[in-house]
Specification:
It is found in: Cytoplasm. This protein is of the alpha/beta class. The chain is built from ten helices and eight strands. It is 48% helix and 16% strand. The longest helix has 18 residues, at 97-114.
């Protein structure tokens, strides 16, 4: 359920290793790190159920498609198991939906054709629509494109936008894609209460840099109250 993120530019190798050890203790779905750290993370996560996830064209997506594809290929060669791809926000805001479609189609194709993990699974692709900078119409367009190119998840935000993810963001995206596609809520999620509200709105993956605090807050809540919150 939780993708724990460490996307600080000044993170050290020692911090990445400890971050991965922490993720194993909490059994997070994945760790999200910059591509440079993939070899370190894969070694640290060996033998665990935690996946290594990285970001492509982060945080604004405004790279030529060829550069994004090369970045994805390199990440997959470094044994990334999941990739979070930022939609080209400049192209999207300019109404160049043809480019957005081509861009995402090539990236998802690379993941599906070249990204078979040691478990025999395809590399998971999550498309970041950046709800903090896009309109509902633009978000719907990206969702439809993501469905057409067979991406696995729509992700709300990079965390670099002007506001946190909202319940309304998740509800809207879920109303567009239905139950067939995953939704990852991310961007400013700091508390258990935020996380539960987003899950109840339709998110089935959570991106945060405070995963342990959220889990520990859940563990402190009486079972009866936790059930009420999640109903």
């Amino acid at each position: 359920m939780i993708d724990d993120s460490l996307l600080r530019a000044d993170a050290t190798e020692e911090e990445i290793i400890e971050f991965c050890e922490q993720a194993k203790r909490y059994h997070f779905a994945s760790v999200v790190i910059f591509p440079y750290w993939l070899p370190v993370a894969r070694r640290a996560l060996r033998g665990s159920d935690v996946k290594a996830c990285t970001v492509i064209a982060f945080p604004h997506g405004c790279l030529p498609t060829a550069a994004k594809v090369q970045e994805a290929r390199q990440a997959i060669a470094a044994r990334a198991q999941e990739i979070d791809v930022v939609v080209n926000l400049g192209a999207l805001k300019s109404g160049d939906y043809e480019h957005v479609h081509r861009d995402l189609e090539e990236l998802v194709t690379v993941a599906k054709l070249n990204g078979i993990t040691e478990d025999g699974e395809e590399v998971l692709t999550k498309i970041i629509v950046e709800t903090t900078l896009t309109t509902r119409e633009e978000q719907e367009r990206v969702c439809r494109i993501a469905e057409e190119v067979r991406a696995d998840f729509i992700k709300t935000c990079t965390g670099a936008g002007p506001r946190p993810v909202s319940v309304e963001d998740v509800k809207f995206l879920r109303s567009v894609v239905g139950r067939e596609m995953g939704i990852k809520a991310a961007g400013g999620i700091r508390t258990y209460e935020q996380a539960m509200a987003l899950i109840n709105a339709g998110a089935n993956r959570m991106g945060t840099s405070t995963g342990p605090a959220i889990v520990e807050a859940f563990d402190r809540i009486p079972i009866s109250h936790a059930s009420e919150v999640s109903d």
